[in-house]
Amino acid sequence: MKKCRRCSKPATMHITEVRDAQAVAIHLCESCARDYLKADAAESDAESGMDLSAKLEDLVTEGSEALMASMSCPACGITFAEFRESGRFGCPNDYSEFLAEILPLLENIHEDTRHVGKRPRRTSAAAQDQTQLIRLRNQLQTAIEHEEYENAAAIRDQITALETAIRTDISPASDP
């Protein structure tokens, strides 16, 4: 679901404006769309000639272009404005450096910021167990880093039980 350009609520109104042979889509929630349409209807003929890019700039950003141009990666030197133009980062460090700016883009494009992916329909139980084991080990590491030792002990016990179950499932299968 697209997000409103003004307030980041779910967009229910999708407006496409065509001016100077350019089509621009504007996604707004219901309340922002009402305000936008009232303001659009209230414009006088003198104001109706206002450039679309200037109108969208007021709608979406308030001085963020200068901020984007000034932000750069310390490792590779690429600016966020250069990334927006090319669509490619210069190094892996850019993902963490521009995280705050990337998240709204990902939400707008993919409707979420967390990849859940797809699984093959016929995944083996062993593959699912290995995935669960990896997930538990990551949770254990996080619990230790946050000094949540009781939680870490419970996760350790889950890992031990899962490893035991995996070993007992593999042992009979490996015998000829």
Integer average pLDDT: 77
Overall structural class, as computed from helix and strand content, comes to mainly alpha
The description of the largest β-sheet is: 2 strands, antiparallel
Number of domains: 3
DSSP strand content: 5-15%
Q: Please give the number of β-strands.
A: 2
**Radius of gyration in whole Å, from Cα?**
25 Å
Main sheet strand line-up: 1-2
* Pattern of helices and strands: EEHHHHHHHH
What's the number of helices? 8
Helix content: 55-70%
Based on CA inertia axes, which overall geometry fits?
elongated
Helix-strand layout with pairing:
Blueprint: E1 13-19, E2 22-28, H1 30-42, H2 52-60, H3 64-70, H4 80-86, H5 93-97, H6 99-110, H7 125-145, H8 149-174
Antiparallel strand pairs: 1-2
Helix pairs in contact: 7-8
Could you characterize what this model shows?
The chain has 176 residues and is mainly α. 57% of the residues lie in helices and 8% in strands. The protein folds into three domains: 13-60, no CATH class; 64-110, no CATH class; 125-171. It has a two-stranded antiparallel sheet with strand order 1-2. A hairpin with a 2-residue loop joins strand 1 (13-19) and strand 2. Helix 7 (125-145) packs antiparallel against helix 8.
